[in-house]
Amino acid sequence: MPKVGITTTIPVEIVYAAGWVPVDLNNIFITDENPQALVEEAEIAGYPRNLCAWIKGLYSTVRRDENIRTLIAVTQGDCSNTHALMETLELAGVKIIPFAFPFDRDYDLLKLQIEKLMDAFGVDWQQVNEAKARLDLIRRKVWELDRLTWEENLVNGWDNHLYQICCSDFDSDPKAFAKKVDAALKKAKSGSPGKEELRLGYIGVPPIIDDLYDYLEERGARVVYNETQRQFTMPFNTGDLVEQYRRYTYPYGIFFRLKDIEQEIEKRNIDGVIHYAQSFCYRQIEDLIIRERLKLPILTLEGDKPNRLDARTRMRLDAFLEMLR
Fold this sequence. Notes:
By secondary structure, the chain is α/β, with parallel strands linked by helices.
């Protein structure tokens, strides 16, 4: 089956309904054995140094994989640098299919975008809704994994992050991914609850650093809420595909996101929040709104290139946890 790269979460039901294989380029980039090399390859090709490392990693990931000759790029509701990413990949011969989440969450405009994507892949509503029904069964398993995280302390922060974030493309193989989730659920239910004394929320884009969750748990704190990753699971009971992607908070304004964040913070009894902001990302500006609105301690972390926590960030995390105690 042909592969199609995706730059972030899109209505993946359409891709599966058409018999294509979606590939979330972010996941391929960050799990590469040397993601920093991908960043440097983009810089050698001409991408500027002072640009988000995710964009550079996505560019090199596509250039390396000769099987990805088509890309669905989100032009509104995600990174504004995606526009230049599209153009440089089009220059390299990749077919670009743009998709836009309307900023005001207008139902008709979103439906129009979804139907344009359906036309591009030659599928109808019946095929898409059948694909949604199949994927929703897997999503419900991941919702249960999330519940076991915050309600029963049976899932650690990393696994909560991992299984939820994979719902953007279901690891390009929904059946195999469902088996992985089943195994994770079985393991969690047979384990013992975590004993960490501090409960944290993580908001913002997924981290480019890979040892954050382990570091926190070694110091007695557990992430029981991953905001954006949870959104990738479409945690909404609706049979309407358009409404599903209207309720999905990540591509829309910060105030819509904050309603969901505030609700989950209260439900999950969270002590403090880590707000992660990627270097050179416009979402860094939203930190001032988050700090104004959320009424609990917040630590803002900034990541640049794929790496492990540096000494300065570890010290800031230590100080934050000490303050919460």
